[in-house]
Amino acid sequence: MFRILKKSLKTGVVTGQYPEAGETSERLPPEAHEKAMPFRQSLTIREVDTGSCNACEMEMNALANPVYDIERFGIHIAASPRHADALVVTGPVTVNMEHPLKDVYKQTPDPKLVIALGDCAINCGVFKGSYAVTGPVDRHIPVDVRISGCPPRPSEILRALEKLREGEKGQPNLAGR
Amino acid sequence: MTERSSPAQQIQSAFPDLIAKYPSDRLVQYRVDKSRLPELARFLHEKLRGRLAVLFAVDCRPLAEKYEIQYLFASGSDQRWVLLTIELVGQDRLFTSITPSVHAAQWYEREIRDLFGLIPQGHPDLRRLVRHEHWPKGTHPLKKDFLWDKTIGWQQGEYRFRHIEGEGVFEVPVGPIHAGIIEPGHFRFSVAGEPIMQLEVRHFWKHRGIEKLFEQQTLTTAIPLAERVSGDTTIGHSLAYCQAVETLLHIEVPRRARYLRSFLLELERLHNHLGDVGAICNDTAYTLAHAHCSRMKEQLMQLNDRLTGSRFLRGTMAIGGVRKDALAIQRSETIDVLDRIEKDFSELESIIFANASLTDRLETTGVLTERTAWDHGAVGVVGRASGIDHDIRRDRPFAAYDEVPVKVILYRYGDVRARLRVRMDEIHESIRLIREIRQKIPQGPIVAAADHLPQAGDWALSAVEGWRGEILYFVMAGENGLIHRCKVRDPSFVNWPAIQWAVVGNIVPDFPLINKSFNLSYAGNDL
Predict the structure, then answer these.
(1) Which residue range(s) make up the domain with A46?
(2) What is the pLDDT of residue A28?
(3) What is the spatial distance between Cα B294 and Cα B296, in angstroms, rounded to a whole number?
(4) From B279, which residue of chain A is nearest by alpha-carbon distance?
(5) What is the ipTM of this complex?
(6) Considering only residues 320 to 349 of chain B, which have any Cβ-Cβ distance to chain A shorter than 8 Å?
C-alpha cells in the first residue's frame, strides 16, 4: 500500500502533458455544430473499426490514458452502440464490414453524430480502389465530422471534438477545463 | 555427441535424387514433384523438427502458364531456411494437403484455396476462410486474371460453425464489433456453465486486399503500404519489406543504417510491450497498473514523435537504409527518457507482483502447452512464453543484431503470467539494446543506392522479429519494376489458431484476459 501511494505521489499529475495540436484551417460544417448541441456537456462515443490498420484504434485508446484523460471533458466511451451519441468510424469500409457498419448505425439511437476518423475513413487512404474495399464511410452512412491524419494525433482528435462542441459562434465550451 | 549433420545433408541422404539449389547462403530450395511433397514435408516436420514458417502460392502468369506453391520450413538446428516448391502446370488446380501431418498448414491451405482457387485435396476443413460466404462463387482475387479494382458481387450464404450439442451446452457469439476499442473479429464459444468447451475464431472481416494492392506498386513505392499492414507494427513490416527489396536490388545497407533500424525496431517493441503490460493488468481490473503503463507508453509515443515526426515512427524506412537520422538529432534525450522509464517501470513491476489477487488471475490461466504451440508453429512472445526458443534476432540476425546480440527471454508455463513476464523482461532487454546501439553506432551514410535491376521472376525472402514475433515477406519482381507477388505473413496469422486451444477449460470472463495476453493483430491477419 505504502509503495503504491509513494508511486502515485512521486508521479504527480500528468494530465495535460502533451504538445498542443497545431492550428488548422479546417472548419467544421455548421450543421455539425447544430447536431452536436445536445451533447455539449456529455458525449458518449462508440468506436467502430471497419478495416483500419489499427493505428487509429491505438490513438483512440490513448485518449483514455491519464495524459489526455478524455473523461475530463465529459466524453465517455461506450461498450455498445445503443448507449452511444456518436459513432467514431475508422478505416475504409471493407466488403466484409459493410453490413456490420450499417447495422451499428441502425442500432445507435437518434440524434446521433458520425465522425470519420483518419484518412482511410475519409478517402480510403492507401487502400483506395481495392476489390475488398467498398469505399469511404460516407458512401454507406452520413458523416458529420471528418478528422484527417494518418493517424491523427490524440491532441488533434481532442481539438476537433472540442471545436465541435464549442458551438458555431465560438461560445465558451460548457464542458471546459 | 557426434556432430549432427545439417538438414540439407539429411534430406540429401533420405531423398538422394533431389537437387538442392542455393538461391542465397541462408536458403536451400528443392523443386519437387507435387506427388512427393507430402512425404518430404512430413520428413522435414517430424524427423528434422522443421517448423512450417509460411506456405503460399504464386500465380506465375504471364511469365509462365503455371502456379507455384512454396513451403518454407525453419529448422531449429540450422540457420538455413528450407524451401520446397511444387508446380501446378496448365489447367491443374489440385494439390495434396499436408495438414493431416503438418497441423500448422491448415489456415495457409484454406487461404490458398480462397485466394487462388487451388484445391488442397484431403484437407479436413474446406470451409471458406478469407472469402466470407457472401462473396460470389469463383471469386479468387490473387489470380492474375482478376482485376485489382473489381467490384465484388453479393450472394446468399452462411458460415457453418462447429457445434457442440448436448444438455446445458450453449453458444456465445461475440463480435465482429467488440465492446472495447479493438478491431473486428468474431468469436464463437461453446460453453457448459462457465467453462469454455470450444472456441472458434472467425476472422478476415478487415480483409483489404493488401497483397493485391502490393501488385499495383513498384518495388520502390510500396513502403507506405507495408507500414499500414498492421499500424502498431509499422517498423516491423516496413523493415521486412525493405530487406526483401534490398536483396532483389543487391543493395548493401550501410552499417549506420542497420544500427538505426535496430534502434527503431526496439523503440516500437518498447511502446507496444508497455501498452500490453498495462492492458493485461487492466483486464484483471487492476487499473492502477494500466494507468501507469499507458502514461509511460504515452511518453514513448511523444518521444517517437519528437525523433521522427510520427508517433508510430512512420516514414522512417527507405529502400537501402533509413530516411531520418533519428539518433543523431536528439541522442541524449532518448537515453534520458529511457532511463526514467526503466526506473519507473521497475518500481511498477514490484507493485504488480506484490499484488496476490492479480497474480492469482494470471497464473494457470490460458495455458498454451509447448506441444500445442509447436504444432501450430507459434512464434514471438506467445511462442517464447510456451518454451519455444525462437527469436529471429538471434537465430537469423538481421539489421545490427549480429553485432548487438540479443538475450532471448524464455518462459515455459505458457500461461498469461508467462506471456506477461516475457513482455516485461523484453522491455528491459530492449532498453539495454538501445543503450548498446547508442555506444556502438558507427558514423557513415544512412542510405545506399541500387545499381542493379531485378529480372522479372526474381524473388527474395526476408524475416524480421517484430514486437509480436516473426514477420515474413516474400517479394517477387515483375515486369517494369512492378511487384509480381508479395506474400505478407504477420505473426498473428499463426498465433490466432493457437488461441483456440489456450482458452479451452477456462471460464468465459477470462477470455478477454487471455486474448489480451496474446494481443494479436486483426489487420495483419486479415490483410
Answers:
(1) 27-166
(2) 79
(3) 5
(4) A61
(5) 0.89
(6) 347-348
